[in-house]
Amino acid sequence: MPKGGCNIVRAVVIVPPSLINFELQKGFALAIAKAREPISGTCPVENVRFLANLLKFNDNSQNRYSDDFLRATYIDAFRLTLTTSTSQPGIDQMPETVKLLYDEVNRAFNMEILKPSYNRVVLVACLRFFCELFCLGYLPFKDATVFNAFTLPGGNSCRVRVTAIVCMVKIITAMASLKGASGLLLSIIKQVMVDPEPQFIREVLKQLAADPPFNFSEYPDRRTLPLNTWLLRKTIWGYMVHPKTEHRVRMLIADLFSVMYQYSDP
């Protein structure tokens, strides 16, 4: 029995008769991550330690199939346990449970660099977890530049690049009141639109339209928003009406503009 007093489930065995159990095991991890204390609203400490041990003591040695998706699900479950930070940003200021999860994800992240998972699913889950730490105030905004290395076209898959860009936008949105946030958002939009990979451009625009930096329906008076600058709206509009913009990209930009600004024009 590992530290924390929680029994760990049996070793991973992925064979056709046990695929249902395998999916249930993933759903079980996500379910207990959503549990909350009735008073504090935080995830119970026992649940957090149990989830951390699931990843730490995960045994795939008897299985000829990869457990990449299972490990990625565990990291996604870590992300669901997090709540807003009440302390100063920084690794040394993290609560014990958050630091425990951070260490496990950091270990999985380093292993992912040495031995990549299928379709980089573990790396994507790690990036989303780190993004959540930034958004909830556990890590300082100045350290968010670590995502830049995963947005570059050389050596990174399209899925990883899209995840890194979307994470950066979410962090900027969460810290919109900080100086320079609006300029960073504008530079990201420009970086995406001049990217040499068409699929990357389309996927980023699709995800930004689904989860934009700000939504017209939620903020009718957009003039009070720090991220809503004249230059940002003019830039998005310019890409949308430019004659050389590819038609599928144009439609996705129109979706993004509609979500952010409805039917108004610059």
UniProtKB/TrEMBL annotation:
Coiled coil: none annotated. InterPro entries: TAF2, TPR_TAF2_C. Residues 21-265 form the Transcription initiation factor TFIID subunit 2 TPR repeats domain. GO terms for biological process: transcription initiation at RNA polymerase II promoter. GO terms for cellular component: transcription factor TFIID complex. Transmembrane segments: none annotated. Pfam families: TPR_TAF2_C. GO terms for molecular function: chromatin binding; RNA polymerase II general transcription initiation factor activity; transcription cis-regulatory region binding. PANTHER family: TRANSCRIPTION INITIATION FACTOR TFIID (PTHR15137), TRANSCRIPTION INITIATION FACTOR TFIID SUBUNIT 2 (PTHR15137:SF9). This is MIF4G domain-containing protein. It comes from Panagrellus redivivus (Microworm).
